[in-house]
Structure to design on (222 residues):
């Protein structure tokens, strides 16, 4: 019968297997980005890997607690997953609420600030290399010609003037805010979807925790 003990157990296991697969994807993405120098900042790649490891531990805890029907472990799993749902739901809503102008002002404030922080400098280099742009507002064509990582590839069909040299040497203020704004919208939508799957996991874990194992000893304390 669906909704019984075995159905709740299998549903919770499948959901945690999904979380487990997502954690492997995050760990693989962080490791690949670091190994191929897509992200040269170790802290950023390490943060992606740490997120994957945390999700791996949560999913492993859910699988073990569900398999053993362990009351204490299920309780901790419910609490941690509910806290994760609150954090991810709040962050997703914030990502969807941020406008492109707010993104531009925030990036400009950090980009143009005087700082010798190595993480900031590496992040700026990553951004210039990924978005193929140079500087924030000053478009120096000589600098662009000398720095190959700042030269964009062949202009796409969407470019109106394919012979204009400025298309291959754009400032980062022209490219990054628009791209980041759309990335935030996409991330917010995906994060909002997965936050509801986490709430589904909380509901399944609570339901499963309160159910009695039909194969257990009838006199066993629950």
């Amino acid at each position: 019968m669906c909704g019984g003990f075995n159905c709740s157990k299998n549903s919770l296991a499948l959901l945690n297997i999904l979380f487990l697969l997502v954690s492997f994807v995050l760990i693989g993405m962080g490791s690949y980005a670091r190994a191929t120098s897509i992200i040269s900042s170790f802290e950023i790649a390490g943060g992606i890997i740490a997120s994957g490891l945390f999700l791996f531990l949560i999913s492993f805890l859910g699988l073990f607690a569900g398999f053993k029907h362990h009351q204490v472990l299920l309780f901790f799993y419910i609490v941690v997953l509910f806290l994760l749902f609150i954090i991810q739901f709040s962050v997703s809503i914030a990502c969807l609420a941020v406008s492109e102008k707010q993104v531009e002002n925030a990036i400009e404030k950090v980009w143009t600030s005087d700082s010798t922080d190595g993480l900031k400098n590496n992040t700026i280099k990553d951004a210039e290399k990924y978005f193929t742009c140079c500087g924030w507002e000053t478009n120096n064509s000589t600098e662009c010609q000398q720095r190959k990582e700042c030269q964009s590839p062949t202009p796409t069909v969407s470019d109106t003037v394919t012979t204009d040299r400025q298309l291959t040497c754009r400032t980062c203020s022209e490219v990054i805010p628009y791209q980041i704004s759309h990335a935030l919208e996409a991330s917010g939508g995906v994060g909002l979807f997965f936050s509801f799957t986490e709430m589904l996991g909380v509901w399944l874990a609570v339901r499963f925790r309160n159910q009695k194992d039909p194969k257990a000893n009838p006199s066993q304390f629950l």
Summary: Residues 154-167 have pLDDT under 50 and may be disordered.
